[in-house]
Amino acid sequence: MSAWKTIRYLSLEGRPQCPSPICVALVKKGYATRSVRYGYYPRRWEKHRIQRFLCKTCNHTFSLATGTSTFRQHKPFVNNPLFEWFASCGSQRRAARIFRINFKTVVRKFESIGSESALFNEEDRKKAAAVQDIQFDEMESIEHSKLKPLSIPLVVDSKTRKILGFEVCKMPAKGHLVEKSLKKYGPREDQREEALDRLFRRLLKNISPTAIILSDSKPQYAKHVKLHFPEAHYSQVISRKGRSSGLGELKQIGHDPIFSLNHTAAMIRANVNRMFRKTWCTTKKLDRLIKHLEIYAKYHNTVLIKQKAPSSDLTSAIPSTAA
Ligand SMILES: [Zn+2]
Q1: Can you tell me the distance from the alpha carbon of 203 to that of 85, in angstroms, rounded to the nearest whole number?
Q2: CB atoms within 10 A of CB 4
Q3: Fewest CB atoms within 10 Å of the CB: 43, 204, 216, 269?
Q4: What distance in angstroms lies between residue 150's CA and the mean position of ligand 1's atoms?
């Protein structure tokens, strides 16, 4: 029996839209396209068969998997465990060993999970209401060597510790490494100003114009805040020496006015393996650090800070014993 004889016409409701550019353009113009069932194909990683379709308008075939986020992936079942792994101190080489997959697969998965997390964070920013209270500062990391440092401006919501946004940029070496860095790699561009500018421009809709903004005492910060949030209540706090157990981010004693920012930075230092203070896992490519931070930001915002209910909710949930 030929395949054509097995074709059954689909009902109007159950008919999937042909994803070919020709048909998408036709549908946009108001024309109807018609597709028919066109057999199945077996999926290797699960005992399941996928319905194929033939478009009678453009003669292309497609399936129920076409256009999904796991289309053409051979091991989509490791996507979620890997996402949690990368946000929980895991390295790429150890992931290959633990999940029993090839290292090249891990690298590809890292890139796709990173891109998906970036899209998720972007969508999340679009949906969220403008924040009234923020804190920002810069973290530092390296690109392959300490002679090539990177700067990471970071903005967090003071109340919830949600990561609102970050940027990654190059900066020249500091202190005793200046001479060595110049000798080995030549002059290094300082992109910190434009990165902070780019970050604030991206977050214009996410931060209320009259927000309370707190930052470190770096003199360059004030002009950026004044430019993007002229009506905001901005104040700077004096930087203090980090506590040895606080990964350099948590401060020594007493009340820290930018605790939310410093605590989030410490969490990044503790949970993203390439951001550890002493590590073998260093960033080799700048875009991979961006992807890793996007993965952590998604995990931080959706899992880590969501597990803890706000204090006001907790107090209202506890029954009063005064009576
Ligand atoms: Zn078509």
Answers
A1: 28
A2: 9
A3: 204
A4: 48
Ligand 1 center to residue 22 CA distance, Å?
6
DSSP β-ladder status, 61-63 and 48-55: antiparallel
Distance (angstroms) between ligand 1 centre and the Cα of 151 equals 48
When mean pLDDT is compared across 60-69, 122-131, 232-241, the lowest value belongs to: 232-241
List, for residues 137-193, the tens digit of each pLDDT value.
999 999 989 999 999 999 999 999 999 999 999 999 999 999 999 999 999 999 999
Give the residue among 266, 151, 130, 133 at the shortest CA–CA distance from 197.
151
Q: What burial class does residue 154 get, using C-beta atoms within 10 Å of its C-beta: 0-12 exposed, 13-18 middle, 19+ buried?
A: buried
Q: Rounded to whole angstroms, how far apart are CA atoms 46 and 37?
A: 22
Contact 141, 269 (CB under 8 A): no
How far is ligand 1, taken at its centre, from the CA of residue 54, in Å? Answer: 8
Residue where the block lists tokens 């549908």: 27
Q: If residue 270 lies in a helix (H) or strand (E), which one and from where to where?
A: helix 259-271
Q: 60 alpha carbon to ligand 1 midpoint, in Å?
A: 6
Q: For residue 72, how far is its CA from the centre of ligand 1 (angstroms)?
A: 20
How much distance in Å is there from the Cα of 26 to the middle of ligand 1?
9
8 A C-beta contact, residue 162 and residue 203: no
107-123: burial string, b at 16+ Cβ within 10 Å, e else: eebbebbbebbbebbee
Is residue 60 exposed (0-12), middle (13-18) or buried (19+ Cβ within 10 Å)? middle
What is the tens place of the pLDDT at every residue in 286-319? Answer: 999 999 999 999 999 999 998 554 544 443 433 3
